[in-house]
Amino acid sequence: MIKVYGVPMSRAMRVLWALEEVGQPYELVPTHFLTDAHSPEYLKINPNGRIPALRDGELVLFESLAINLYLARKYGQMLWPKAVADEGRAYQWSIWALTELEGPVITTLMHRMFLPEAQRDPKKADEAAEGFKKPLAVLDGTLAGRQWLAGAEFTIADLNVASVLMLAPMANLDLSAAPHAAGWLARCTARPALAKARATPG
Ligand SMILES: N[C@@H](CCC(=O)N[C@@H](CS)C(=O)NCC(=O)O)C(=O)O
Predict the structure, then answer these.
(1) Considering the domain boundaries, does residue 202 fall inside one?
(2) Do residues 104 and 129 lie in contact, with contact meaning Cβ atoms separated by under 8 Å?
(3) Does the beta carbon of 89 lie inside 6 Å of ligand 1?
(4) What is the DSSP-derived secondary structure letter of residue 166?
(5) CATH number at residue 64
(6) Does residue 199 lie within any of the structural domains?
(7) pLDDT tens digits, residue range 105-149?
(8) What atom in ligand 1 is closest to the CA of residue 64?
(9) CB distance 112 to ligand 1 below 6 Å
(10) How much is the pLDDT for 10?
């Protein structure tokens, strides 16, 4: 059976969401990012010392959004784009989510919510919130003319980007200037598979 290493309150949620979408049975191997991720046993699975990681038979993968592209390609007929051009869009948006969008979102979240209060820096949070406006505008502009990012249906491109953007409200990042992106995010996060993933204990 597929194994996911991680805990739900982490980037592992992205992979749990994808697994629920594709309907494959899996086992969540509790692996906490602060402790277990640096153990010698886990470093053999992901030498980066980060979660999530995935084992599927002989294959071991790290990088949450790459794992999701693999799961969609292998198991998710409905999630994988139908046209090759849309496959290109799925790669593009997945890499974009990590290189353009995630940095500002995570920095804001850390400095507004997750770090112990003494370590929070409001200036860093505000700068990151400012930096968030640019990728948000890019996404909003794209979604002004279409319902989904890669083709006519919800695909792994949407899941991967939404799994990063859905952290924005937790960081008090305002989406009101981006109604198309906000509407699309609401469509993505209403998916029953995400509700199932969020119900994972741990
Ligand atoms: N780009 C990686 C980032 C993974 C990552 O940073 N995970 C965090 C938990 S959400 C972690 O394991 N942090 C432990 C550490 O950096 O020591 C991915 O998307 O999988």
Answers:
(1) no
(2) yes
(3) no
(4) T
(5) 3.40.30.10
(6) no
(7) 999 999 999 999 999 999 999 999 999 999 999 999 999 989 999
(8) 20
(9) no
(10) 95
- Number of compact structural domains in the chain: 2
Q: Are residues 14 and 89 in the same domain?
A: no
Q: Which domain holds residue 18?
A: 2-78
Q: What is the DSSP string of 9-30?
A: SSTHHHHHHHHHHHT--EEEEE
Strand extents, DSSP E, the chain? 2-6, 26-30, 53-56, 59-62
- C-beta of residue 170 within 8 angstroms of C-beta of residue 185: no
- Mean pLDDT for 12-30 is 97
- Domain C-terminal end among 78, 104, 124: 78
57 and 140 part of one domain: no
Model confidence over 23-59: pLDDT tens digits? Answer: 999 999 999 999 999 999 999 999 999 999 999 999 9
pTM, two decimals, is 0.97
Q: Is 97 in the pocket of ligand 1 (CB under 6 A)?
A: no
Longest Cα–Cα distance in the chain: 50
